[in-house]
Amino acid sequence: MILFLTSALDTYYKDENGNRIPQKFSNFNGIVDNLKKYIKKYDNFLFVASDENEFEITESYFNTVKQSFALTLPFKNYQLLDGRTKLETKTLVENADLIFLCGGHVPTQNRFFQNINLPKIIKNTNTVVLGGSAGSMNCADIVYCPPELEGEGLDKNFKRYFKGLGLTNINIFPHYNDIRYEKIDGLENEKDILIPDSFHSPIIAYSDGAYILQVNGKASIYGEAYEFKNGKKSLICKNNCVKNLE
Asked: Hey, what's the torsion of the CAs at 53, 56, 60, 62, to 10 degrees?
């Protein structure tokens, strides 16, 4: 399996009214080149939702991503997997030439994945999987899930680790430069969440434009990234560079 773990693709920009305008996404850190290298067919694009019931929000993001790929790497068919099509999960996944796992709220998306038995179904495919933000985080065997919504940082029952899709053993923290100093319930993402949690397991943090490419179990990071491990932060890769991960 070919796995792309992105923070986010630049599939759109916002106009003066805040509307998302689809655009051709860039080849920053060579992601378009790598997608072209590993996508074998351009028949079926499958967009997997982050919330099976938020149909309007899902369709809005689906249409944006669909139009962006149509400008960049066009497919013949664009299909959507959410609560309305979940009974077709096995067929949709098995027929997909690219599976796009969208961003969203990590625990909500994880529950949807578990409900449709996606961990088992997706492991039996031999296709390209592209995660964005939460979609990338949920690809891990054991998902690292830092608090994101107000109340989660103080909730003693909030789970920061749970079973994921089992496609990689890498835990990531996306949108790093944008949200490293943001606070959830008074807790700063880097100082109060990432660093303490890194004593539990290593975390690779990177921003939009950087990504991890895993081919047959061997992973490399493309672009600027930091490793948080045992309470320490270290720069492990720069933009326009590639580093193999152990």
From this structure: 30
3-class DSSP state of 112: helix
Residue 183's beta-bridge partner residues? 188
Q: What is the pLDDT along the chain (246 residues), one digit of tens a residue?
A: 999 999 999 999 999 999 999 999 999 999 999 999 999 999 999 999 999 999 999 999 999 999 999 999 999 999 999 999 999 999 999 999 999 999 999 999 999 999 999 999 999 899 999 999 999 999 999 999 999 999 999 999 999 999 999 999 999 999 999 999 999 999 999 999 999 999 999 999 999 999 999 999 999 999 999 999 999 999 999 999 999 997
Tokens of 171: 């835990």
Pairwise CA distance, residues 240 & 28, whole Å: 8
Distance CA(18)–CA(221), nearest Å, equals 32
Q: How many residues does the chain have?
A: 246
| Per-position DSSP letters for 33-97, written without gaps between them | HHHHHH----SEEEEEPS-SS-HHHHHHHHHHHHHHHHHHS--SEEEEESTTTGGGHHHHHHH-S
Radius of gyration of the chain (CA): 17
Q: Which amino acid is at 55?
A: F
Is 136:207 a contact under the CB 8 Å cutoff? no
pTM greater than 0.85: yes
Q: Kindly state the greatest CA–CA separation across the chain.
A: 47
207 within 8 A of 224, measured Cβ to Cβ: yes
Dihedral pair phi/psi, residue 37, rounded to 5° = -65, -35
